[in-house]
């Protein structure tokens, strides 16, 4: 049986992502669902688009 820690370590090795990042993503997903995992960096706010 694979442990959650074992899965985290496999993801860490394969994708070169820190264990802490993986852990925080899983916690965010558990608390808020997949919508909170979307990366919104670099995208303009809707207010800026409307005000142009």
TrEMBL record:
<dbReference type="InterPro" id="IPR010921">
    <property type="entry name" value="Trp_repressor/repl_initiator"/>
</dbReference>
<dbReference type="Pfam" id="PF13518">
    <property type="entry name" value="HTH_28"/>
</dbReference>
<dbReference type="GO" id="GO:0043565">
    <property type="term" value="F:sequence-specific DNA binding"/>
</dbReference>
<dbReference type="InterPro" id="IPR055247">
    <property type="entry name" value="InsJ-like_HTH"/>
</dbReference>
<protein>
    <submittedName>
        <fullName>Helix-turn-helix domain-containing protein</fullName>
    </submittedName>
</protein>
<feature type="domain" description="Insertion element IS150 protein InsJ-like helix-turn-helix">
    <location>
        <begin position="14"/>
        <end position="44"/>
    </location>
</feature>
């Amino acid at each position: 049986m694979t442990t959650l820690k074992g899965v985290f370590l496999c993801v860490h090795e394969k994708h070169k992502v820190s264990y802490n990042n993986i852990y925080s993503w899983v916690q965010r997903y558990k608390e808020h669902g997949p919508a909170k995992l979307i990366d919104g960096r670099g995208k303009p706010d809707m207010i800026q688009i409307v005000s142009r």
